[in-house]
Amino acid sequence: MKKRIAMLLILSLAFNLFAFSFAQSAAFTEKAVPVIREDGETDAFTVRFYPDQPNVPYCGLRAYSEYLGSNPLTCETGADGTLIFTGTQGVKAVVDPKAGTLSTEDWTGFHCPAPPYAGQPVALKDSNCAFVRIADVTYEEDPRPLTLDFGKYGLRMYADADDVYLSLTLVSSLLCDISTRMMTWNGERARFGRYGTELFESPDMESAMMQTLVTKGVRPEDVAEETFAELCFDIDNFFGHPGVAVLDAAIAEKGLKQALLDLGEAGEALIEELQSTRGNDYLKGMDDLFLFYLNDGHTYNMDSALIHSEWTLQEIEPYDNDTYSALMKSPVIIITLLAEQILQTRAGIWGEDVYRECGNTAIIRLDGFMPDEAGWQAYYGGEGELPQDGAGIVVAGLRKAADNPDIQNVLFDLSYNEGGSSDVLAFIAALSVGADRLYGVDKLTGRRMTVTYEADTNLDGAFDARDREAVYDRFRYGVLTTREDFSCGNLFPVIMQEKGAALLGEPSGGGSCTIQIVALPDGTSFIMSSGQWQVTDKNYVDVEGGCKTDIPIATELTWTSQEGIDMPVYDNSAYYDDEKLNALLNDWFATNERQDTAPDAA
């Protein structure tokens, strides 16, 4: 009996030493918090609170992966006190709780399961539209190893024998997948789902923490500290670096905090605001950071409206005219300001038509690639008409063009296009020219990637050989582009040009990275250009510089002063001369067809 008691004491001591080696906190409390899901249902998720950060929820990496359901991780302990996590593809990540690091030979393979996977929308990437799906993803190189150093940022890590614990929002950002599923925290409850859905249309204000932030202008000290650390960590490690933002190169070299410090007094003041427990100072700091220093069109503060809303207690000092004039010179801001002018010019000439015919050319207006998910679900269910989103407009337009035997050319009018979902882009490219691939670079692992997809071009609910017969490739295609075309609006003309389309107008406006959503522990969140996928042309060259037009059409950009602020004025009225567009397309195709059929000089 004494031997047995002695053995139990030895085992107990060994266990306690084992637990201590994982830097486990002496005490914590667990709480099952409500989670509002995208489908409207509410369930629960267990989080931990530690004494030194009583307002910051923590969760296990493995526990969160199980909640996601798409890539549940297994965990085993290493002889050196590390934890070894393995994803569904067999890729491992080693966590060293003492050092506060996570290392893996293949970050993408570890945290992204092979598509399609449980929980992913039915489509290619980021929508619930059933007309396109991933068939295969291939990589050109071996991945570059990645080590994430949480300790460098002062981010606390706890562990026990079968999981490692980080802030809930930090884990959400780590495991944010290509469908942008995320979990946000408002101090009392979480929200879980995809960005862009109704669930995330506005900040989650129904908690004491959020009300205190915006009405009383206060953030708890532990929340302010953790939020700044996570902000720096997420941008330093997962930003895509498309090369547009003011601090892009400096962040790539030194990290966000040092890049700000190198700005001198302005940067130091901004850091002070970002770390402040005063809510309005923090909100203004976030607004300034993303507006002036990180803005690349995809990277912006999702809660900017909070500082200009009825919720705020303290009046925010407005920018002076010189600051505004400098801001107006930003290429990204110029693109935004030109949008309304383009719309007014086109409406004055064309009206609101989305389909026109002139000569042997049909013109289809394509203002964006955002999907009407509910409309397509109803359509496929036999309960609705063809949706009037970008995909539906193109389907209807191509059907009309096909009914007119005189139509030879189809011109997509992208003179105003702010982008949207790659699902819609891929479907339209497949329907029109038979494209079935997207290309990119995973900047986190250094690999070139090719995504092969299938499109239900005949909209019969099946992916089969009959879809190839439904492609409208008898037409000659053109795309009308301006500098306002962004993201998918920037990539679409590149894909079409590679398939023989003529590009008319001026180069598109960039936007080469897909997006990543980052939730922060104070209830705010932001979007940034993601390093997980920088889209490219078929030669893996990034398209941030915009497309190269085959047929330039002159535009005029001038500047005028409005109440002491310099504002751009844009004239692209030549874009809407139907007869000229018809003639330009026919001349270009006639010239290129002669060149294609000409005998070799030799």
If you had to describe this structure to a student in words, what would you say it looks like?
This protein is an alpha+beta fold and 602 residues long. Helix content is 34%, strand content 25%. The protein is built from 18 helices and 26 strands. The strands form five sheets. It has a seven-stranded mixed beta sheet with strand order 10-11-3-2-1-13-12. Strands 8, 14, 18, 19, 22 and 23 form a six-stranded antiparallel beta sheet that branches. The longest helix is centred in the N-terminal third of the chain and has 20 residues, at 2-21. Mean pLDDT is 89; it is low at 1-26.
Strand content: 15-25%
What's the count of strands? 26
Give the helix level as a range of percent: 25-40%
Sheet with the most strands?
A: 7 strands, mixed
Instruction: Please report the distance between the alpha carbons of the first and last residues.
Output: 100 Å
Name the overall outline.
Answer: globular
Rg calculated over all Cα atoms = 27 Å
> Spans of 5+ residues with little confidence (pLDDT < 50)?
1-26
Mean pLDDT: 89
Total number of helical segments?
A: 18
**How is the largest sheet built, in terms of strand order?**
10-11-3-2-1-13-12
Class computed from helices, strands and strand pairing: alpha+beta
Map the helices and strands.
Elements: H1 2-21, E1 29-37, E2 42-50, E3 53-60, H2 61-68, E4 74-77, E5 83-86, E6 92-96, E7 101-104, H3 107-111, E8 132-139, E9 146-149, E10 158-160, E11 163-167, H4 168-174, E12 181-185, E13 190-194, H5 208-216, H6 221-238, H7 248-254, H8 256-261, H9 265-275, H10 279-293, E14 300-301, H11 321-328, H12 331-350, E15 355-358, E16 361-365, H13 373-380, H14 390-403, E17 409-414, H15 422-433, E18 437-442, E19 447-455, H16 466-469, E20 476-481, H17 488-498, E21 502-505, E22 513-519, E23 525-536, E24 551-552, E25 556-562, E26 565-571, H18 578-597
Parallel strand pairs: 1-13, 16-17, 17-20, 20-21, 21-24
Antiparallel strand pairs: 1-2, 2-3, 3-11, 4-5, 5-6, 6-7, 7-9, 8-19, 10-11, 12-13, 14-23, 15-16, 18-19, 18-23, 22-23, 25-26
Helix pairs in contact: 9-10, 14-15, 15-17
